[in-house]
Structure formats: structure tokens, C-alpha cells
């Protein structure tokens, strides 16, 4: 973990990714993760940090656009999984988006590849991304890599992300992510904001 991480609210976004029924259902018990995500969202909102949701859902046209070369998403298209409007795509009721939150819908793994997320962030001068969601080997990994390549500062909330493969989750947190992201647990994130570290004088560099 990295100590004394500070945040400038106007330059920071909390990304809650794939916290929807069809993905959360892959976990044996998602309730604790959802509760920690709720606490992180509440702390971010209170500090004036932009909250962004990224969810996965498909229209009929989206299914048609998936190449048979795509090993991950070909079965999704063939079985019409995560169809827009289906229960699989519904964000957990405990952490429904608020009026000032932004929601992006993607049709691939990472948060950036099929959305306008990067434009949204850059238009607002946001360059610090706090990542949370499911799964660690999926959207979190893809977004850490892509965000770092786009020169964003990346923080992963280590206990506000999870994966059905616990061993892979640990390996990513311990051996992979630290080369491109800082790690912080959800309580430390919330406490840092409540304690006044997000007062606009903390460095985001």
C-alpha cells in the first residue's frame, strides 16, 4: 500500500466499473464489496470528486459488430448476454448513480476502448483515476493499463475490486499493478478525504 496519497477533487474521478448484476453474480458473496463501493462513492461525492460508472451492455447492432476473432465476446454475442435493458446490466441498487454522476456503457473489457470516457475526463481536467469494480482480471486490469498509457495517475482501491479467481486477484495487486498504479484500501481512501486531504492543496502529480 502507498501512504499519504492525496487528491485534488477537481482533478479526480472515482470509476465504479461493472458493478452490475451479471458481473457481481460471478462472486460468491458480492455484498461486502458493494458496501465498500457505497462507502467510497459517498466519500467521493462528499469531497466533490466526480463519480463515473462504466457498465457493459449490448444492443443488437453491438452484437453484430463483434468479430468471431474475439475470444471473450463472441460467446456474449452468440448467446445475447448482457442485452441492454436486461437484469444483467442493472447497477447494484445500493450504489445507483446519483444526479451528478456520469454513466458510460461499453461493449468490450476496458473502460476506455468503446466509450467517450477519455474525452469526458480531459474536458474536465481530470487526470487522477480511482478504480473500483469487478473483475480484477477484467475491467480493472484493462483500465489500469490503458489509463496509465494515457498518462493518467491511477489508484486502485484494493478491497473495492474483486475477482472470482482469488489467486489471480492477489497476483495482480501484489505483483502487476504497482508498476503502473498506487494501491489504497477503501477505508483509507474515504478517511483521507474526510480528514481534509482533498482540500485542493494535495498534489496530484
Structure overview:
The protein is built from 8 helices and 6 strands. Helix 2 (31-47) packs parallel to helix 8 (186-194). The protein has a 6-stranded parallel β-sheet, sandwiched between helices. The protein is α/β, with parallel strands linked by helices and 205 residues long. The protein has helices at residues 21-24, 31-47, 60-64, 74-78, 117-123, 136-149, 166-176, 186-194; strands spanning 12-17, 50-56, 102-106, 128-134, 153-162, 182-184. It starts with 11 loop residues before the first strand and ends in an 11-residue tail after the last helix. It has a single domain (9-194), classed as Isochorismatase-like (Rossmann fold, 3-Layer(aba) Sandwich), CATH 3.40.50. The model is unreliable at 198-205 (pLDDT under 50).
Amino acid at each position: 500500500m502507498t501512504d499519504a496519497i492525496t487528491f485534488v477533487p477537481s482533478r479526480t474521478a472515482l470509476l465504479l466499473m461493472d458493478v452490475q448484476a451479471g458481473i457481481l453474480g460471478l462472486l460468491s458473496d458480492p455484498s461486502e464489496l458493494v458496501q465498500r463501493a457505497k462507502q467510497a462513492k459517498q466519500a467521493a461525492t462528499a469531497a466533490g470528486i466526480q463519480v463515473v460508472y462504466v457498465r457493459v451492455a449490448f444492443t443488437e447492432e453491438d452484437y453484430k459488430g463483434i468479430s468471431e476473432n474475439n475470444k471473450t465476446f463472441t460467446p456474449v454475442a452468440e448467446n445475447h448476454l448482457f442485452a441492454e435493458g436486461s437484469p444483467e446490466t442493472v447497477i447494484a441498487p445500493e450504489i445507483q448513480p446519483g444526479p451528478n454522476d456520469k454513466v458510460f456503457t461499453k461493449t468490450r473489457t476496458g473502460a476506455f476502448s468503446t466509450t467517450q470516457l477519455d474525452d469526458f475526463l480531459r474536458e474536465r481536467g481530470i487526470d487522477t483515476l480511482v478504480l473500483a469494480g469487478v473483475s480484477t482480471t477484467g475491467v480493472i486490469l484493462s483500465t489500469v493499463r490503458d489509463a496509465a498509457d494515457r498518462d493518467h495517475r491511477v489508484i486502485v482501491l484494493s478491497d473495492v475490486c474483486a475477482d472470482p479467481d482469488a489467486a489471480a486477484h492477489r497476483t495482480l495487486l501484489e505483483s502487476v499493478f504497482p508498476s503502473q498504479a498506487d494501491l489504497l484500501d477503501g477505508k483509507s481512501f474515504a478517511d483521507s478525504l474526510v480528514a481534509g486531504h482533498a482540500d485542493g492543496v494535495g498534489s496530484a502529480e
